């Protein structure tokens, strides 16, 4: 600090500025309105601007889950919707493949490192029964992620299975 200069100030008067901007207010109001996209197969999607994806509730193996379609890098929203429909129409096979990936990637981890107290080893069937799909996210480049609740296999952590629509699931991990 320079000698003789104080680090204090006193506000004597607030010289208010008129900050109203009708165009900005109109744009702000417009941006706060929900954006929905209708689809004949899934119904209505809502845009989640915070993550730039369309989201809806859909039945997966007769249970409601969240379906998300990422718009990042999406040049063809119609093609993305078509991929989602194709994926959904084959959900029995996809469910089996995604669960199988989770088991092959995580069952040994569960039994080697995540058993509690006197808990016995978990079987493949038990592992598959305990995990439940919470959401599926599809990306324009053909990738997908399935998010599972872990049925307390990993003490409440999420299970994420990822892969491509072309090659199928290829990775499973725990998160959270």
Structure description:
The chain has one domain. Helix content is 31%, strand content 31%. By secondary structure, it is of the alpha+beta class.
Q: Tell me how many strands there are.
A: 8
Oligomer: single chain
What is the residue-averaged pLDDT?
92
Distance from N terminus to C terminus (CA atoms, Å) equals 48 Å
The coarse silhouette is: flat
Cα-based radius of gyration, to the nearest Å: 25 Å
Count of domains: 1
Structural class computed from helices and strand pairing: alpha+beta
Q: Which series of helices and strands comes N to C?
A: HEEEEHHHEEEE
Helix content: 25-40%
pLDDT < 50 runs, ≥5 residues: none
Q: Beta-strand percentage?
A: 25-35%
Which key features would you list for this structure?
alpha+beta; eight-stranded mixed β-sheet; 4 helices; 8 strands; 176 residues
Task: Describe this structure in a few short sentences.
By secondary structure, this protein is α+β, with helices and mostly antiparallel strands. It has 4 helices and 8 strands, in the order αββββαααββββ. 31% of the residues lie in helices and 31% in strands.
